[in-house]
Amino acid sequence: MSAPGLNRWAERTLRYARREGYLDALIEIYRVELHPPRHLPDDVKENIRRLYGKGEYHQLINLLLGLRDFPFPVEHPYASLLRSLGEGERDGVMRRNPKLVRSLSEMLRSMGSDSIIGGMERPKDINRGLGSAFKSWIKREFNTEPFRLVERGADLLGCGGDHICIYVGSDVTIAKFARQQLRLEEPEEEFYNRDIIARVGNTYIIGEARFLSTPGGSQNRDVRNTLGFVERMEEIGRSARGRGVEVRGIALMDGIIWLHNSYMNLIRSSATGDRVVMSALFLKEYLSDLHKSPQVRGALTAGGVD
């Protein structure tokens, strides 16, 4: 028996990504907007200048780390580590690691108070806004018949067969629905913390959306994890079907993944048969095709989880 070929949605995405207009269309989903600068209160600025002028860098570091609505003046891995600790715990770590404190102090000393304030007031990084862009796009584009946006994951249970119901709440509430309402066992912690869950007929679709801008590093891990999610969901779907629950996992991947050969090799080895890996640009068509399927539009249960 020959191995299954590339899933048709992955194949269509690959063809589309190599034509004109792919990235132009993608801008409608992952919009890039320049964030406004932050503004420190005047009393905080005065305190920063006072501590800097007196050379009290240990206190200055603590002050900067405690301002959680503002970034540390420069991207610094150890500053991020310290900020993630509680205040009491952080003080203890700083006392036990004087070389780190001296290093941070020297860095701040060399910057000057104006640069410290400027670094904290810098705008949010553009990429930070892309995390919520997908869900915002769903809310803009999937609000006409037959699509219906629901307020809670539990509302999917009452979704009629004439509609395609979509819930784009928090990743945590999506996971809670998968565990409690669909009674899906979680193969690992936070496995069902995903971006979207939809109901089409008697079928539930759990989707993970990813936009990748550059190859290598953590991007490689994200690609493998997302493809692994689809592969694992294929096994979970077979098990759930035995007790009357139809569930599928899909990966909505965009960006460099369709333009870089090493990533395409991963997709070709993973997105085969019924494993759906595609651009989010095809999501509306995918759900509509599923909605028209005789198997999906067959007899409905009261939620498929009796």
Folded structure, characterized:
With 306 residues, the chain is of the alpha/beta class. It contains 13 helices and 6 strands. It has helices spanning 8-17, 22-26, 42-54, 57-66, 77-83, 87-96, 98-111, 113-120, 133-141, 171-180, 218-241, 261-270, 283-292, and strands spanning 147-149, 164-167, 196-200, 203-212, 246-255, 276-278. It has a 6-stranded mixed beta sheet with strand order 1-2-3-4-5-6, sandwiched between helices. Helix 4 crosses helix 7 (98-111) and helix 11 (218-241) packs parallel to helix 12 (261-270). The protein is elongated.
Strand content: 5-15%
- What characterizes the major β-sheet? 6 strands, mixed
Give the CA-CA distance, first to last residue: 37 Å
Broad structural category: alpha/beta
Give the strand tally: 6
Runs in which pLDDT lies below 50 for 5 or more consecutive residues are 298-306
Can you count the helices?
Answer: 13
Element pattern in H and E: HHHHHHHHHEEHEEHEHEH
Helix content: 40-55%
What value does the Rg take, in angstroms? 24 Å
Which sequence of strands runs across the widest sheet? 1-2-3-4-5-6
Shape: elongated
Calculate the mean pLDDT score and round it.
Answer: 88
